[in-house]
Amino acid sequence: MPIDLAAVNWLYVIVLAILVFVSTLVGNLLSFHHRMMAALLSAIVFAGLFVFWTYYPHNLPLPTTLTVQKAPVAPIAPPPVAAPEKPRNPVTEIPTPAR
Question: Rounded to whole angstroms, how far apart are CA atoms 39 and 28?
Answer without folding.
Answer: 8
